[in-house]
Amino acid sequence: MATSMTRESEHSSDHLLTNTQSQSNISSPSLNINKRSNPDSPDNLPATQKQNTRQIRRRNSQGDLRDIEKKTPATRKNITDKVIEALTSPDVLNTIIPVLAEKISKTLTPLIEEQVKKCIAAHVEPIQKSIDEHDFSIRDHTVKICKLSIRMEQVDKRLKDNNKMLDVWDSELDALHKKTKDMESRLESQEQYSRRTSLRFHNIQVPVDGHGKILHPVNTDDKILSICNGQLGLNLSIDDISRSHVIGKAKYGKCQVIVRFMSNRTRDMVYTNKKYLKHNEDGVFITENLTKFRTDLTKKLSQMKYKNQIHAYWTADGRIFVKRAENSRKEQINSFEDISDIERDITSPTNQQQSDAEK
């Protein structure tokens, strides 16, 4: 459209130019005839001025054409604006936008879906692989757990059976322990009974060498008879002694002597008169010939007596007795458990309060 308008404007400008030229040629004779005396006429001008005048006219005509050409863009702009205004009107937009949106949606939706699927697949595949690996590991561990559970049930059953057997064995061991303890007690009592006619004399002077060793033989019978007749006031003879001998090592030239009398009556008579040795210069004293177990019991009671935890203890016919206080009744000690009971009673709060009150 703009091209046709340009061609028309060029055609009109050419037409105008030819018309002006023809008019000038036509009117020139009349002007030369009628206005020859006018000095301003172009015909009266020199040749150079005529050429200048023609050039000016030509430029004026070309300037008109240029003005027409300059006005053409303004026309184009107005058309463009109208087209833009038409396209941007609400009615057109409301009509075009849904159509364009539908076309774009149909075109882009498959592409977007494909790209989304690719993106999801790129992230999902490693996760799915990891899930599959974990599923396999879980199944493997489940199988192992089932096997272990079966084995645990078997082991638990065996343990229950073994516990039952252990309970039976424990009861048997308890019975055997009780029997053993009873046998030990009976054996210890029998051993003490075999010593019923024996006494032990302490701090008896014996001959020793330069190293403190006893010089054997030692006539222990004479030494025992000397003590019994001279210090205890008895009238014993060699026939009253079955056997006597030194026991242990000498210490400072003194040692212990065990004496077995011929009768229990003679032994009791000597043991009853031991009180006369209480202030003996040599420190001689007499005790019953106790077994090792009963000797250990008397040592423990001696420590308690030294700490004032008991009032007194003594032995009679191989039996051990103790009195907790001066006015308390005597108690027989048969084992270390009996001594532990006394210690627990001493350390109990009630007994401590009573002892504090007595103080």
From TrEMBL:
Superkingdom of origin organism: Eukaryota
Region spans: Disordered: 1-74, 333-359
Residue ranges, compositional bias (Basic and acidic residues): 64-74
Bias-annotated ranges (Polar residues): 15-54, 347-359
Name this protein carries in UniProt: Uncharacterized protein
